[in-house]
């Protein structure tokens, strides 16, 4: 009785071996590529974790124990902002002279930041008049000035904490009328570790160096 089985020729065997070899090579290449991607992702995650877990230096504002309230009514500490570059200014919402110009300067800085670093930056406005500037008032002010995006943060605290923080920023302010203050016009840049990196002083000044410093510090986070 004849068998219908067919033994592959040497040529067919060679072709089968070639196909298997190619499949094995592509599989090896794919696995290698996958390992590279996983390694890169691990490095990114490790870098972010190191930024968050890095010990706080003696020069960092994250050492301050003071409690603050943001425009959403949430209680926070300065260290809760750790991990991003902070662009900070002290204002009060009822101000009719210098503060609107400081707000304009902050908006101009935000608009000029490169898109690829904006997620690494928070723009923080701290009230020097916490009695008037309640969380509700700060929220309304943010909306009125189109500063209610995720990158904007408004803070208020006690008068004692506010005075202490102003000293850290070298901001002087004094109440000269029931709803009026005289104050310094300074925009401060803090790196991701909460250390002062740069200050811009004055109203309507050229912000090129400020933006350059923000960009430099923000790129270190990536």
TrEMBL record:
Report keywords, A-Z. Copper, Disulfide bond, Metal-binding
Cite the InterPro entries for this sequence: SCO1/SenC (IPR003782), Thioredoxin-like_sf (IPR036249)
Q: What is the lineage of its organism?
A: Bacteria, Pseudomonadati, Bacteroidota, Flavobacteriia, Flavobacteriales
Q: Which GO terms describe its molecular function?
A: metal ion binding
For this entry, the protein name equals: SCO family protein
The species this protein belongs to is: Flavobacterium yafengii
Disulfide pairs here are 95-99
Tell me the residue numbers annotated for binding Cu cation. Answer: 95, 99, 183
Under CDD domains, the record lists:
SCO
- What is the similarity comment for this entry? Belongs to the SCO1/2 family.
Pfam families documented for this protein: SCO1-SenC
Among Gene3D superfamilies, the record links this protein to: Glutaredoxin
